[in-house]
Design brief:
With about 140 residues, this protein is of the alpha/beta class. The chain has a single domain (about 1-135), classed as D-tyrosyl-trna(Tyr) Deacylase, Chain: A. Helices cover about 25% and strands about 40% of the residues. It has 2 helices and 6 strands. The chain has helices at about 50-65, 90-105, and strands at about 1-20, 30-40, 70-75, 110, 115-125, 130-135. Strands 1, 2, 3, 4, 5 and 6 form a 6-stranded mixed β-sheet that branches. Helix 2 (about 90-105) links the parallel strand 3 and strand 4. The longest helix has 18 residues, at about 50-65. The protein is globular, with a radius of gyration of 14 Å. The protein starts with a strand and ends with a strand. The mean pLDDT is about 95.
Length: about 140
């Protein structure tokens, strides 16, 4: 898994082009303030032990949220960080599992509409903690 993490003062995501027909139709934009943005690329190896993958993802997300004093995280599928991609439906299981576990721990997770290209608008402060890349 590869994860590009940002801290955003403001993030807006508007679905534009649907790429996966098996996912629901979504037209509403999402706007979030003071959140960690996780641009996540799931690789085939990440599906071998999904629970381990989710645990590592959550550990990194909680670490960054705690460092930046927020409990909000946006999980965004970004399959452009490596050459190999995992199956989209199985990848979404990782997103949903992370969402459920974070919500159950008192965090405020959001998943951007899955299976779309989006118009993105981000306000990212010039904080050294506001941009981090993780690979595991």
């Amino acid at each position: 898994m590869k994860v590009l993490l940002f801290y955003a003062d403001k993030f807006t995501c508007t679905p534009t082009i649907k790429t996966l027909e098996s996912f629901p139709e979504v037209k509403e934009k999402t706007s979030i303030e003071k959140a960690v943005l996780a641009f996540i690329h799931v690789e085939p190896k990440d599906l071998e032990d999904k629970n381990k993958t989710v645990t590592k993802l959550i550990k990194n997300l909680k670490w960054m949220m705690n460092k930046l004093n927020t409990n909000t995280v946006v999980l965004h599928s970004f399959a452009h960080l490596a050459s190999e991609k995992a199956d989209p439906e199985e990848s979404f299981e990782i997103f949903q599992n992370a969402f459920d576990r974070l919500a159950g721990s008192g965090y405020n997770p959001v998943i951007t509409p899955y299976g779309y290209f989006h118009d993105l608008d981000m306000q990212l402060p010039g904080n050294p903690m506001a941009r981090i890349f993780k690979e595991f």
